[in-house]
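I hope you will forgive my troubling you with a question about protein structure. The matter concerns a single protein, recorded as an amino acid sequence and a row of backbone structure tokens. Please examine both parts with care and let me know of anything in them that strikes you as inconsistent. Here, with my thanks, is the record as I have it:
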Amino acid sequence: MNTKRMNEQNIEESRFEFLKGDKVLWMVILVISIFSIFPVYSASSNLEYIVNNGTTTGHVMKHMFFVVLGLAIMRLVGTVKYEYMGKLSSIMLGLMIILLIVTMFTGQTIDGASASRWLKIPGTPISFQPSSFAFLMLIIYLCRYLTKKITRERLPIENVMYIFGPILLVFVLVAKDNGSTALMILMVSVIVLIIGQLHWKYIAGFISASFIAITLFLLIALNTNMIGGNRVHTWMSRIETFTSSKAKSADVDDESVKAKNYQVMQAKAAIVHGGITGMGPGKSALKQMLPQSASDFIFAVIVEEYGLIGAGFLISMYLIMIVRIVMIASKMPAFFGSLLVLSLGVMIFIQLAVNIAVAVNLIPVTGQPLPLISYGGTSMLVTYIQLGIILNISSRIQIYDEEGMGKKQSIVEINDIA
């Protein structure tokens, strides 16, 4: 009887072999990935008719290619033991730091961007942003190191060399051309240290030292020419623009204020224009006037075309994704696996929250893409890798029986992690 039940279970598991891991999370990822094609197709017309870059069909085909490639990579990541990723993270982080240094001297701009964040692969037309991969490798490295040393009190010099040193090094290398990503790296790293149970006195000391270092950097960059090629003035301009748009005393008829607030004003107009039900797929009237409509401000296009109903549906998908990630982490008995899942979930959530907050003018413009939606290759692939690792860990959840660690969970048990 038991043999028959085991055979039936094996047959059921084989049916879902491709969707390895949490099935609800898989479904959410697939829904968001498929949905992303429609707003990208609509918004990319801005690139063709306004920026004069490529064709709408070409852009959507490129986006679909990255969606398929990302799903394939996500599934491939699920075949590798996540413990191996942790062991290799220090080597990969070192490699990413080298690439960040190379980018500082040979980085390129894309589509008129003012920051040289992209590194071109020699002999190919392919470019990517090393900062996104460095961010991911840093978080995996921190999770691994905190797990490996959790059984004893670390010496202060160890924390400086192996925790704070790598964080600040990546932060400094990224900050010059990508301030928003650098701040996210610092924020997520601190959250990982808190979740990873590093003593509060070290975390408080690190936050204080980081604040002092950032303040000195800003003062030097704003008042001297010692740090060439920095974008501090751009950051300050964005903050001033944000505060002026919020100030009640701002003169709405001032042309300089209008020019600085142009992106935000167009995004807000698109959101208001969408109303409850939206204008319909592809019928955005403001996408041609909204800079970065296919990437940074694509959420505004989604609201305009699909309304609050469509935006609510998309946000609900993201919320389900975050909830499933938390559920997976809570049921993973291995500390490294649990910490890694939560840390990757924090990365995705902060990027999501920042993109939407910018679109609705809650924070200054940052240039962060909407996960799995925005047009662009590097960020999308990194998000798929993050989700692949989370799905990998969800497939490795074990259950306890009377003799200790038991068998791998069945399909039904994995589907009902809660």
In short: Strands lie at 119-120, 127-128, 398-401, 404-408. The two ends are 28 Å apart (CA to CA). Residues 195 and 339 are 7 Å apart (CA to CA). The longest strand covers residues 404-408.
